[in-house]
Amino acid sequence: MNPFQIIATLRKFGNYLAGLFPFLAHIVDWLTKPLKAFVEQPSVAPYWQKITQNKIIQSIWNVVSRFYWRDYSKDRLDLSEAPPESLAVMLPVFRLCVLLCLLVPISQIHFGSYVPIEAVSGVTENAAVWVIVTWMVALSAGWSSILSGSAFSNRFAYAALACSALYMLSICSVTSERSYWNWTFTAAIFFGYFINEHQVKRDNAKDWMASIICALAIGCIAGIQLTCTTPLKALLAPLLPSVSYEQVGVLIGCIIGSIIGLVICFTAKKVKDTFVDVGTLMSINFFSIGAFFLAATLRGDLSKLGSQMFSSLKLFNGYLWPIWYFLGVGIVFKLIGSSKVVSNSIKNLIGPKLLIPVLLVVLTGLCLVFGSEPVVRMLGLQPSMAASILGPVFFPIYLQAAPYIWREPLTTIAVHWFSWVLLFDVLVIFVLLIIKRLNNDSMARLFYLNCLSALLIWEYVFQLASFTRTPKHSIFALLIFSLWLLWLMHTVGWSMSLKSSPLWPAIGRLPIYGGIMTFCFLEIFARSALKDFNVTNELFLALFRGVIDIGLPYFFYLYALARLGQLPLHLSALFTSFCLGALFSFPINVLDKFAAAGSIEGLKKIAQEQYQLFSAKGSINLDLELPEWWLLTRAVLFVCVLTALAFLAHRKNENANERHGAKVFSLVAFASGMASFSRSFVDLPIPMNWHVFIGPTRQDLFFSAGLVYFYFALWLPALILGLGLLSDKLRKRRYFVVLMAIAAAFNFGISYFYQNHESLLRASGLIYSGIVILLAIFILLVSYCISEMAAFKEAKQKPKGQPLLSERSVYTLLTVIILALSGLAIYQLSSINSTKRDFAVFTHPVQVPSNWKEIPSNDPRSVLMTFKESQGIQSNVLMGTLDSHKDGTRALLKNLLVKASANLPNLQLLKLDNWNRMYPDALVCFYTFEKTTPGAGGGIVQTMEGLTILVPMPGNVTEYYTLITSPSDMERLQWRLCMVVESLPNRMGKIPSLI
Fold it and tell me: Model-level pTM?
């Protein structure tokens, strides 16, 4: 964090404390009272008001306050907004969270005695006794808060959290001897279930069935804990001599627990008055769980107890990823708000008369600067009429901007992405000029969209850069991080917790929110005490993955909400459809692996090797190529499921358009859930081998072209079927069948071309043109669907904002974009020219690019080729054969690297990866080295990047293909070499080796 961020974090913490302790706010007001009195003096007040009311000053101050000196007092914690009965819970929990943050700097101080801690995760460190005591108090407070809140919410939430508490707390007693004290927190859970059944409604048979299911679930888990962690198991074992000693505890525990649970279920409603509030229930839970920890401490080893508590905490917090996803996506709201502040402030600074001219000049300048690099690359150094005309214009601009933009990789990425936004701006302005709607309002809205796009792109690139740098770990950095996280959770979670619904009343939400906060800050405190500073990286990664995994569907939801004002489908129904799509992705993941393996035995092998890969490296990524028949079958299956969902999703709306609009949103939400969890791997409470088995074949940790293509492959079919639901003509059976075929064709076509022709797409640059074409089709379908639904909305439900372009203008603009980029795509494909050539070193022809020129060589087993790209940078390609190593391709590569290190100065290995998707058993290695060009002063030292692909062939021969070029060109040129490897004669009938 820079000094501004540190100061902002401390100010946030001060406002949080002012909400918990109001007297601190009065002290601050007393200290600032003289300053307020000074500006209110008659001689000063008129000048001060004149300054503060100046539009220019206000505009500048809005930007400064938004990014550097924001007024956090308006977001201050206001406990008066909470239900009065929840204050008894919230005050001690919030104060405990603050205490945990403040104890971080002294968590490693071992005053008094200390004990060794060894967690299941591998963390081994000494911890002070007072730290472990703090863990006990915080765990008791966290679990009691969550259990109390869920008891006053709904029965399924309490059942799930009660079973989780029984399991997590039982972990803390596995190393201690059996004792009747282990049943103290179990009794509290049964009492909480009694309160839960007393509070929630039970009006019909459905409610009765839910109560019985929850009673049996809680009873079985609690009964097993009762018999297995207390001496009851040894006492009751002689009663069942035919049952093994290991199973008697489970059997008797299920029987006893189920009886207790059913008795509570049938007697809870007989109590007429509510005799326990949420604060009293929390006190009972806190002292019961605290008594369990105290008894375990007195009769056991504090070191083992602390180790089990830490392991239990990490295990439970691993299942809190939905909370981090929610916080990560919640940051988007801040970016949207910041975009509005920036755009409004600049509009006020420029003024209405100069708004259009100034913004047009800025847009023109950005287009010239950001477009200079691709224009210079396209023109190259070859003499032509275009080069003579455009070269003197763009080349000086490129040279001036290169030190600030094109020589910084992350900045280059951000500029390339934002260039597409500028291209869209040019097209929109061109359309606005034609339809004569280029005015201040339209220009201001376009400028706001640019601000939002720029902030989103920059924030993503900034977070991406944070994972490439090694953080400087320190206690102070961890303290600032915990205080920043405290304010973030408050601003995102407090307002949500104050809301109320039948299933989640505020009286229950607030204690659950407080319990989750306790667990989060307890983990930071505990891991800081054990000097495990990776907690910051892991939490940042969880926030970042929240945007990656569910960010695109969430942005889509915000857009639809802004356009329609009120969606035809309730948020809970949208979430249900999203979850159904996520669940549907699990069997599809398994079928993907089965289709790639071709048999049950092959599936078992793939599952085993994926689990070993995850256990050894923490990665689940497999290079599997799915057969075309399965891609087609999967597309048809997906469309059939969407169709079935559309017919099953009956909506009780009198308006037919709203009813069908609700079905469209159900389809899109289902496709979004499937897309999100078909490319992500999250913690689930199931055995790890099954978790990996139902997981995807690849996980995307960043926004990639593959992720975007996968979303389009699922979103477009859902929207195409939406056309058949919204259009009266297309709703007919014969037309709807045609739409189903088109939807399946889109899914199959996108999946097939990206999987089988990724190298061609990337080498030609068509990868990004294709994304924009699909995006234009996506926007076209979305515009049609939303316009159809908006046309039938009542006058009182008008959309929140008018569109920037009319419906006809949008359709025209998107059609022009699709046609123009289709022509560009044809040109890009035609620019990839390859020829088959015979080389003496190979027994087969090799298809190489036409501009590769062979250089004579004396080595009979190698071929040297060279070529120049548009900027005149020379690259070399070395191809040949080697004798295979008896220990495999990796051993051969190791020997090659050892030999190369003696000839290539400062050789550094960057990445080693399998490229089975390019060619079976292909192994690729990326590396850098220094090359000295002769010149004055000892020559010029350049950093070069190399790529070597080893391809094992029959006959104890391994072919190698090496590319040497500049680091800036490697990302683009490596795919040409991939195309060469992909064109080699393939060895069929072999399952790729995954490791």
Answer: 0.81
